[in-house]
Design brief:
The structure is a single chain. This protein is of the alpha+beta class and 184 residues long. Helices cover 28% and strands 28% of the residues. Helix 4 packs antiparallel against helix 5. The chain is globular, with a radius of gyration of 18 Å.
Length: 184
């Protein structure tokens, strides 16, 4: 699975609609860097959320940031949060393009006396042939997992070197590097 673009709105620390274009660098490795609190982990969380309906958060909310805590605290309740991931996958030597759009559970102001009202999670998957899976969350999730071919845990191991593991990798001798790289 190769990410092509990621668009987020009212998701995590991203209030305004923001798109990350992974096609710009002409290489197999994409490095996301920035100051603490700049939104690096949110980008990875958005990719994992688009694919698996939960985030990478190992120390937050028991490892599964879901629901209204994904809605940006910087956005107003009239802005619907979402993530949209377009990625390619090679099947039989042919590169195919897929788009997943997922909206987390979120609070919405419907101008009611009772205040804000929670909205449910939605997901849709656009296939290369134009077919769209949507409406049935579990069916769409099954199809996404079938395409990606990895569990969430496997995806996280191969898609991202966590900050602590990166430091380990930099400071390791050759033998230790081999062990770390095998692990990830």
């Amino acid at each position: 699975m190769r990410p092509l673009t990621l668009t987020m709105r009212a998701f995590g620390s991203y209030n305004k609609e923001t798109t990350v274009d992974f096609t710009r660098p002409n290489q197999k490795l994409f490095l996301i860097t920035g100051d603490t609190g700049a939104g690096k982990t949110t980008i990875f969380d958005a990719i994992v959320f688009a694919l698996y309906g939960e985030t990478s958060a190992s120390g937050r909310s028991g490892g599964k940031r879901q629901g209204e805590d994904l809605q940006s605290q910087f956005s107003n309740l009239d802005t619907e949060p979402f993530v949209r991931l377009t990625f390619s996958e090679v099947h039989g030597g042919e590169k195919r393009r897929y788009t997943v759009t997922r909206t987390p559970r979120y609070r919405s102001s419907l101008k009611q006396k009772a205040g804000s009202r929670p909205r449910g999670e939605t997901v849709s998957l656009s296939m290369p042939d134009g077919l769209t899976y949507s409406g049935n969350l579990s069916e769409t999730d099954r199809k996404i997992k079938e395409i990606v071919g990895l569990t969430k845990e496997q995806f996280m191991q191969v898609a991202m070197i966590a900050q602590g593991e990166f430091r380990e990798l930099l400071e390791a001798d050759t033998e230790q590097r081999a062990v770390i790289l095998q692990k990830i």
